Amino acid sequence: MAKDEKSQILLPKSLLITERELGMDASSIAADMRRHFNHTLGCDKHSISAHHVYEALVIALRDRLMERWKSTHYSYQDKQCKRTQYLSLEFLMGRSLGNTLLNLDIQGEVEKAVSALGLQLEDVMKEERDAGLGNGGLGRLAACFVDSCATMQLPVMGHCIRYDYGIFKQRIEQGEQVEQPDHWLACGNPWELERTEFQQRIRFRGRVERVDEGQGFQMRWVDTDDVLAVPYDIPIPGYRNGTVNTLRVWKAVAVEEFDLTQFNAGNYAEAVAGRMHAENISKVLYPNDASESGKELRLRQQYFLSSAALQDVMRRWLRDNKGGDFSRFADKNCFQLNDTHPAVAIAELMRLLMDEHGMEWDVAWEITTHCMAYTNHTLLPEALERWPVRIFGELMPRILDIIFEINARFLSEIASHWPGDTERQARMSIIEEGGEPQVRMAHLAIVGSFSVNGVAALHTKLLKEGLFKDFYELWPRKFNNKTNGVTPRRFLALSNPGLSELITETLGTGWETDLTKLKDLRSKSEDGAFLRRWREVKRHNKERLAAMVEQDCGVKCDPDALFDVQVKRIHEYKRQLLNALHVIHLYDRLKRGDTADWTPRCVLIGGKAAPGYWLAKRIIKFINNVAEVINKDPAVGDLLKVAFLPNYRVSAMEIIGPGTDLSSQISTAGKEASGTGNMKFMMNGAVTIGTLDGANVEILEEVGEENFFLFGLTEAEVTTTRKNYDPERIIREDEDLSRVMQLLDSAHFNQFEPGFFDAIIGSMRNPGDPWMTLADFRGFVDAQQRAAQAFRDQDRWTKMSIVNTACCAHFSSDRTIADYNRDIWKLTPVASETPC
Ligand code: 26Q
Fold first, then answer.
1. What is the pTM of this model?
2. Torsion over CA of 573, 577, 579 and 582, rounded to 10 degrees?
């Protein structure tokens, strides 16, 4: 018997199903789909839709996941193993259906079940919307990580906010980005399971009281405006291993007694408005991929997530450790902070340990600093998060007190380490003085964590030498590198079935969880028949991509042309403008008849701009105008096509990656922390044209210079060249660039919009241009020429493509997670064996 804690009613164990009993064959699945379609969803002959079929299938699959989910949970519980919580304001999951079918190994049976019901699985799969709970790299990284953790049977739970609105949908109207809200939950989310029984109360505002309870002073945070955090669990299946981990997403709900005073005073509307204010916390994902200063709602989101996740862990701890002994808490728990966005968790854990569990500062600090670990994702100083002390104090006064105390103790450590060095104290302080005082979140994260990592070797080196130099001098052993990776299940096995089949035929299975096996493909690159097969797969994937481009942009691309692709958020440092300059140069060559040995090319560019980033939006318009002029010009024909792909997202990458020949990774050296798109392309046999930046450095190391089109200044050269950077001279001395700039100056791409691109042109001509776009023009054009020439020798190109796939093992997120686990988390894998 088990007891209901609330009602005290005794519940017989016979209620529980303890064996797996749901069939994995087509007929059991079809039967369950019909039952859910008719009974769970209540569909009848008047209300029949493809979406309901999709929902019925997902519920049938969720039932099957549920058995494995419980087993996994019991196994972790039985072992009382150490666990990691991955705290992230973003999880860019994309679609789940294909991934679930792949991981449960029931693609074939579900296909049969669906066709027995008279439908095509492919059509049903299109019904799923992307879960777009993230902006880009950082959010997708979190999604790849939970996939790898489940596949490696590591007890890791993801925590995120259950935003009602994910990243906006991008439409292009007259060449400009128009944002539309992404109400992805409008038709519900059949994957999730609401867990009201685990809800938590999150406090805001109020004031702090000092109370004497006999055994010394205690701090009490009182008169607060509380919000409930209600968790929804999303299953994360491992690859064919019986493990199902959890992504827990938290929704903000007003507390019942919320604004009862208003209500009782007859102010009904005000009382309801108060509820809405609380529930706004989980309304919308902020669409900036660099920090946005000062938005109070964003800080509320950060504290909401951090506190909910920590209280959730505390609840479990107190249940399993009666009497509240915290001495082993840090041995059993790790919190990985995905950038500084959840860094307030450091102060929140201190608060919970001291104020709610009566601990002394030093004991609480020892625990906190032994379970927090921080990952940095940026090298741009302007992207480091800062919050005005004033906002912090208003929203979370108790948390601000704790941050001040952390800082006071930290500064005295600095003072004894470097006596008299007040400048260093000011540089390192968690509080930035001067003007409006700010909390420096990265400093809080470094001081409060036992591990600080960058996301690629170059990035980590630059963090130690630059941004975090002072901290590295103080705590060299805290700093470590964890080069990013991507999951080969979604980005190879699922999105590139043709290549997967060829690989499996050649090497057997097992590569899906051990990409080092792919290195044996290298020996096949001399085998003519294999080259032909490889080329056929790529050709088929290019047809699929060309169909998407035609549908979404109305541009027809010849699948035999070189597909040159750059998809990522629009940012000056990522230099979509350099790409555009090259396109204009090719157009100029065509116009002047310089077409000897021409390689037909389709240039595809896609990505969202933060709605408030004016220049990034103007860059989108620029690319669209250039594309329109070129595509319309009869003199150009099929030799050059340019398209801007609207609404780039995870599910689009699943088509784009496999169909790409040449992957553009052309950021200013020293600016892109890692990049992960570069890895997805490489895995799918695209060759990279890139600078020595982020993880490109490691891709180059793996494939060798002969399989990579390297160009551009190095990070060190960028730093020295900056001092006497003279873009006008570069233009003067390069005839091709002069001609390109002339076309721009003559408004060739904005004949009806005079002056429209002046800001763009001006930014590149500016000697202070931080991204030094023109400095790399010549190198880029020459590298593109080498790529075009290599492509004309199809055997040579195919070999390069094979080598790229063969060498991608280092970029599997399984390798990344193995590194996190070996150096930071130290978890033991737990097989899911316990009966459900
Ligand atoms: C912060 C505060 C307020 C509002 C927004 C934000 C915010 C949100 C998202 C700041 C940054 C981000 C996202 C950053 C990001 O995606 N960075 C990328 O992370 C990848 C994974 O490590 C790297 O590969 C990329 O190089 C890096 O740019």
1. 0.98
2. -140
